[in-house]
């Protein structure tokens, strides 16, 4: 309810202080993102990863700063609700000509919930829906960059236009062979659009976002080619070659390539954006099937991603009627997982107690999930959204699921009408939400059940076993040992990628000790069903993986042909030593054969 009059000077002061807090946050966020260009130019790869990791903490730090200021200067928590109603009204006024209004609304929500000790489902003072439109926002100041630039080449000037597009980013490091690289790009564009066969229409143009997208050791130029009614998204990865010069490594085209580049299983980009909503709108035109929440996440704006996800979730609940259920698959020892069949995500609770073999705590499990969020996920670890005090309609929960939560996670469950609206709700104290995938063990078993005579099933087995091994090796390159390598802890995405999603036993590779199984000392050791040698808390014996993973002859044959090295401690130790020596290994968000290094000069 908005106030009938604005008569509290304190309300405006609170709103202005909150806006100051947000502006400080976004200024620091944007500055750190802009510095990614210099780190790329100077090949400061460890600094780039450190900045990506530290930037994740910026939002919570600024919220805490703002809360402290509001309490110290205004006693905000003790102000009457009428003042808070007026403060929100004033805040909306401050958003009218703002360049990041949607982010500022989310910041207001975060600060208000901290001060008033409310939750998102029981709070009259937050922005449940956006109050200010993000359509057509541009910075009209003379020195400001536009969101994107449009280039209008002819067939004859297309190659020179590609050179100009790259040079306009003014990278302060020389290209090894920009003329050659852009000819590779030109050939790829011609092949993709069949330019030798199609007519170039009056609107033929190339639109390119004005900031590069930085992640790890790469910079990505992102845009689209428009010809008539055809629009083709593209991205050009720019890397350092072995001599330290810049090179365009590949040309990615189409929604599928861009979806993989901006995948939820990859680290967040660093990109300098004055108007983030305009970037999101442009990227949605390239990837219309990708939720806006995931695009905000990919840009490092995870709190806005959470806000949009929750709005999408509430909208889906309102327009569906199926019930939440225990998720299909083998139940986890540490996490209780449920889903809504019509909604493409899973909800994960940490159980209150675990079997003896799982020596962990709730705090340790949370730390593992935070490690994954801050780490380079190399396209192989699912990102998670973390929520507290989430309310669901009670009638949407099956009795079986309620009984499961009461049995394994009673401390996380409240069933009540806490907000007094007459509707009983299931309130989950803490949970993680991830994209739903087909569990790899189920996907593999489906193919095995079809029998060796089914050619399609044989191909499915081969693809997923090879992808599984590639996933492990990509994680190794990122200094990650998954811990529990069973098939059930991995899933298949809609792009056919295998992704790891069970993090309670994850460790840094460099913290593990990879050992060979000692030879038996005598016949008694050899026949013993017990381990006769000492095992440290982080000792790993790769030779022992086989019995747990390779029970099927079909699976074993493919695995041994492509990934037998994963059973050799030397493989793991070699990668551990390379990482300890400071090597940062490349993991590309596209297939090796797409790289121009494989293209004749």
UniProtKB/TrEMBL annotation:
<feature type="binding site">
    <location>
        <position position="348"/>
    </location>
    <ligand>
        <name>ATP</name>
    </ligand>
</feature>
<keyword id="KW-0329">Glyoxylate bypass</keyword>
<dbReference type="GO" id="GO:0006099">
    <property type="term" value="P:tricarboxylic acid cycle"/>
</dbReference>
<dbReference type="GO" id="GO:0004721">
    <property type="term" value="F:phosphoprotein phosphatase activity"/>
</dbReference>
<dbReference type="Pfam" id="PF06315">
    <property type="entry name" value="AceK_kinase"/>
</dbReference>
<keyword id="KW-0418">Kinase</keyword>
<dbReference type="GO" id="GO:0006097">
    <property type="term" value="P:glyoxylate cycle"/>
</dbReference>
<keyword id="KW-0963">Cytoplasm</keyword>
<keyword id="KW-0808">Transferase</keyword>
<dbReference type="Pfam" id="PF20423">
    <property type="entry name" value="AceK_regulatory"/>
</dbReference>
<keyword id="KW-0067">ATP-binding</keyword>
<keyword id="KW-0547">Nucleotide-binding</keyword>
<comment type="similarity">
    <text>Belongs to the AceK family.</text>
</comment>
<feature type="domain" description="Isocitrate dehydrogenase kinase/phosphatase (AceK) regulatory">
    <location>
        <begin position="15"/>
        <end position="321"/>
    </location>
</feature>
<protein>
    <recommendedName>
        <fullName>Isocitrate dehydrogenase kinase/phosphatase</fullName>
        <ecNumber>2.7.11.5</ecNumber>
        <ecNumber>3.1.3.-</ecNumber>
    </recommendedName>
</protein>
<feature type="active site">
    <location>
        <position position="383"/>
    </location>
</feature>
<dbReference type="InterPro" id="IPR046854">
    <property type="entry name" value="AceK_regulatory"/>
</dbReference>
<keyword id="KW-0378">Hydrolase</keyword>
<keyword id="KW-0723">Serine/threonine-protein kinase</keyword>
<dbReference type="InterPro" id="IPR010452">
    <property type="entry name" value="Isocitrate_DH_AceK"/>
</dbReference>
<dbReference type="InterPro" id="IPR046855">
    <property type="entry name" value="AceK_kinase"/>
</dbReference>
<dbReference type="GO" id="GO:0004674">
    <property type="term" value="F:protein serine/threonine kinase activity"/>
</dbReference>
<feature type="binding site">
    <location>
        <begin position="327"/>
        <end position="333"/>
    </location>
    <ligand>
        <name>ATP</name>
    </ligand>
</feature>
<keyword id="KW-0816">Tricarboxylic acid cycle</keyword>
<dbReference type="GO" id="GO:0008772">
    <property type="term" value="F:[isocitrate dehydrogenase (NADP+)] kinase activity"/>
</dbReference>
<keyword id="KW-0904">Protein phosphatase</keyword>
<comment type="function">
    <text>Bifunctional enzyme which can phosphorylate or dephosphorylate isocitrate dehydrogenase (IDH) on a specific serine residue. This is a regulatory mechanism which enables bacteria to bypass the Krebs cycle via the glyoxylate shunt in response to the source of carbon. When bacteria are grown on glucose, IDH is fully active and unphosphorylated, but when grown on acetate or ethanol, the activity of IDH declines drastically concomitant with its phosphorylation.</text>
</comment>
<dbReference type="GO" id="GO:0006006">
    <property type="term" value="P:glucose metabolic process"/>
</dbReference>
<feature type="domain" description="Isocitrate dehydrogenase kinase/phosphatase (AceK) kinase">
    <location>
        <begin position="322"/>
        <end position="592"/>
    </location>
</feature>
<dbReference type="GO" id="GO:0005524">
    <property type="term" value="F:ATP binding"/>
</dbReference>
<dbReference type="GO" id="GO:0005737">
    <property type="term" value="C:cytoplasm"/>
</dbReference>
